[in-house]
Write a structure and sequence with these properties.
The protein is of the alpha/beta class and 220 residues long. It has a domain at 58-207: 3-Layer(aba) Sandwich (Rossmann fold), CATH 3.40.50. The chain has six helices and nine strands; from the N terminus they run ααββαβαβαββαβββ. It has a seven-stranded mixed sheet. The protein has a two-stranded antiparallel ribbon with strand order 1-2. Strand 4, helix 5 (116-128) and strand 5 (134-138) form a beta-alpha-beta unit. Helix 1 packs antiparallel against helix 2 and helix 1 packs across helix 3. It is globular and about 60 Å long. It starts with 6 loop residues before the first helix and ends in a 13-residue tail after the last strand. Bound molecules: S-adenosylmethionine. S-adenosylmethionine (SAM) binds at residues 65-68, 91-92, 94-95, 97-98, 112-115, 118, 140-142, 157-158, 209-210, 212-214, 217.
Amino acid sequence: MRHVATESDYRNRRIAMVQSQVSARGVRDARVLEALSSVPREQFVPPSLAEVAYEDRALGIGMGQTISQPYVVAWMTEALSIRTEHSILEIGTGTGYQTAILAKLARVVYTVERIEALATEARERLNRLGISNVAFKTGDGSLGWESHAPFDRIIVTAAAPAIASQLVDQLSVGGRLVIPTGSHTHQVLTTLENHRDGVVETSGIPVRFVKLIGAKGFPS
Ligand code: SAM
């Protein structure tokens, strides 16, 4: 008879994932590791993919979109260097998995998703999990969410051709932005720090994200 994974099986897989895919590759921030160890990724993927939720890869979530590889979620979260008092803007809610990780680390998360069905499902999922410090919006997030700016941190979880000046303008002084930039097929994770006397950009790991589609993204 086929074994159906229990909550405890998933917990064990989650701990193994954090050790073998995330810690082993150099992510050290204890709060990030703790957040990844506590969010049930199997509840964020389509039921038919729950069995493979902790594999070392991105997974399809429908509508041509993906949930990112756990290591990439961890890398971006660590690069943001989040403190408990922070207000965060996330562009590209998707399943809400990254949102849930951010919500565990920060005071409040503002998240924008252009596909209504995904935004609705993510909102319901986070409600079920009792995560309440998240504000959702459906629409083009490529220009940010001006009415809630400034943000201490901004994360873009879709590939952008460049960093939009509107996003930099919505960062607080001392703020930080992490975004995959490049072509629609290959990008690098770029971290931008907003200092009083200018911005500093650093290039990180190569990645492949789905396209950011919108005014400051790629055409659909
Ligand atoms: N971080 C998500 C998760 O944990 O499930 C995965 C994000 S997925 C790689 C990228 C998401 O960005 C997709 O859901 C896509 O619809 C969304 N997206 C693309 N362009 C967007 C835009 N202009 N504004 C808001 N969301 C956008």
